[in-house]
Design brief:
Helix content: 25-40%
Shape: globular
Order of helices and strands: EEEHEHEHEHEHEHEEHE
Radius of gyration: 21 Å
Structural class: alpha/beta
Strand content: 5-15%
Largest sheet: 7 strands, mixed
Number of helices: 7
Mean pLDDT: 89
Low-confidence stretches: 1-26
Distance between the termini: 52 Å
Length: about 260
Amino acid sequence: MVADTSPAPRTAEPRPGTATGGRPKRRTAAWVAMYHSVSDCPDDPYDVTVTPARLERQLAWMSGRGLRGVSVRELLAARARGMERGLVGLTFDDGYTDFVTTALPILRRRGFTATVFVLPGLLGGENTWEPSGPRKPLLDADGIQRAMAAGMEIASHGLTHLDLTKATDQVLHTEVNDSRHRLAAVTGGDIEGFCYPYGFLDERAADAVRRAGYRYACAISPGPAGCGDFALPRIHIGQADTPVRLELKRRLARVHGRALEGV
């Protein structure tokens, strides 16, 4: 008896991005971390400060999990290509001077990038919007250019850190549009991102940001339905966030709607 040497029928392989059976395979949801100030200042009534040592350990935890911190601009570009797996968006609100003096060297040692949301109406000023707590200096034009030269994304936090949901139409327009134009003049490039002060937004604020020409905006919690990339949720990272807490926040990101879903 002669053995049958004809090739066996080939089993169809699943297409990239699909699971067996033809069902779309869900990509790992990326998430965006929200930082503010990085310093050894012990006076922190609003939980917006992490020490340099804590930031080092938090970024080391990310690296140990095979994660790489990137700017929101880079994260969204990777998501559009279906390549966001293993990326974490890193954002630093308010544009404190300590981003350049303290956070930037730590990020560069890891090969990470980040988005810095600055206030062009308060360049070289202080965090005057906070009613109490320590006064902290804000980046000036030179500091912004140093951050950009190091590969960081510069984006807008409005002009003067106002709650846009309570602003008049004229003030809303000024805070959103003028901040973009002023930052473009400082950086010499396009400003793609916006961050709502305090994380507060409504449909009117989101529409104003979209009309101003930004490509995305960050909030804290998911915004009104239909805002999409103009209400990107983020996870607050503070001094108390040890590796155990970070892992828990990572796992809960999708459950609480604070992850950027893929397909």
